[in-house]
From TrEMBL:
Pfam families noted in UniProt: HTH_31
A GO term, aspect molecular function: DNA binding
Cross-referenced InterPro entries: Cro/C1-type_HTH, Lambda_DNA-bd_dom_sf
Source organism (scientific name): Ruegeria arenilitoris
PROSITE patterns registered for this protein in UniProt: HTH_CROC1
Listed name of the protein: Helix-turn-helix domain protein
Superkingdom, natural source: Bacteria
Domain HTH cro/C1-type: residue ranges: 28-72
SUPFAM superfamilies attached to this UniProt entry: lambda repressor-like DNA-binding domains
Length: 238
C-alpha cells in the first residue's frame, strides 16, 4: 500500500499557507502574536514556511484558531468545518415566539470594545475586546480579559469564550474562561440614542460566592484596524 509521505519542507509550506489565511482575519499581527504568546519574528518564520513550531506551540496555535493538526496536511478550504451545534428543536419551540435568530443586522460580526464599569464604590472601568462570528441561530464570542482582571498575563489564562442569542429587543450572552471559570451572563440592547454601534446593559459575574452585577457598554469596532489597535492598548492599561 502506498504511503503518502510529506517532506518537512512540504509540511512547513502547508502550515505557513494556512496560518497566513488564519492571521488575515486579525487586524494586527503584533497583537495576534501577543495573544498567542509567540515571538513575532518566529511567527513570521512560521508564516513563510521557514520554520516549524514546537509541539506545545503548535497545540497553542491550533487551540487559539479552533483548528486541528490537519492544517499541516491540507488547505483550510479542504478541511470540513466543525459540526454546527444548533439549539435543540424542543428548546426553540419552547422559547418561541420570543427567540429569534441573531442576525448580522442585529449584532454585526467583528471586534467589539467592552467597557465594564466598576460596582458600587469602585469608580474604575475595565476594558476588553471580544470578537464575534455568526452561526445559524446565534453568534460565537471570543475575547481576552486584561491581565489585571484575569490575574495572569498568559493568553490561555485570559481567554474568554461563549455565545450570544437574541430574544425580543435584548441580546443574551454567556462567557467564561476555560473550564467554566469566572462565568459572565450578559444582557444588552442597542443604544438607540447612539448611531455609532453601541449596546448597553449589564453583566453578572459568577466567580465569587456572591454574584456581582456591573454596567456594560459595548462598542462595535468592526474590522477597523486603527480602532482595534487603539482599543487593545486601552485594554492593556486597565
Amino acid at each position: 500500500m502506498a504511503v503518502d509521505t510529506r517532506t518537512p519542507a512540504e509540511l512547513r509550506s502547508m502550515l505557513g499557507a494556512n496560518l497566513r489565511q488564519l492571521a488575515d482575519r486579525y487586524p494586527s499581527v503584533a497583537e495576534l502574536c501577543r495573544q498567542l504568546g509567540v515571538n513575532r519574528t518566529q511567527f513570521n518564520r512560521y508564516l513563510s514556511g521557514e520554520s516549524f513550531p514546537r509541539p506545545d506551540v503548535l497545540d497553542r496555535i491550533c487551540r487559539f484558531f479552533d483548528v486541528d493538526a490537519r492544517i499541516l496536511l491540507k488547505p483550510l478550504e479542504e478541511i470540513p468545518a466543525p459540526r454546527r451545534c444548533d439549539l435543540p428543536e424542543s428548546v426553540v419551540q419552547f422559547l418561541r415566539p420570543g427567540l429569534a435568530a441573531l442576525t448580522e443586522d442585529a449584532f454585526p460580526s467583528g471586534v467589539y470594545l467592552v467597557t465594564q464599569h466598576g460596582g458600587e464604590g469602585d469608580p474604575r472601568a475595565h476594558h476588553w475586546l471580544v470578537q464575534t462570528r455568526h452561526l445559524h441561530q446565534c453568534a460565537v464570542l471570543r475575547g481576552f480579559l486584561p491581565p489585571a482582571m484575569a490575574g495572569t498575563r498568559s493568553a490561555t489564562g485570559r481567554e474568554l469564550r461563549g455565545f450570544a442569542a437574541c430574544a425580543g429587543p435584548n441580546i443574551y450572552a454567556v462567557l467564561s474562561r476555560e473550564a467554566g471559570r469566572d462565568s459572565k451572563t450578559i444582557v444588552i440592547r442597542k443604544d438607540m440614542t447612539d448611531s455609532n454601534g453601541v449596546w448597553i446593559g449589564s453583566c453578572m459575574e459568577h466567580s465569587a460566592a456572591t454574584p456581582h452585577i456591573y454596567r456594560l457598554e459595548i462598542r462595535h469596532l468592526g474590522h477597523d484596524f486603527r480602532a482595534t489597535l487603539e482599543a487593545a492598548r486601552l485594554a492593556r492599561r486597565t
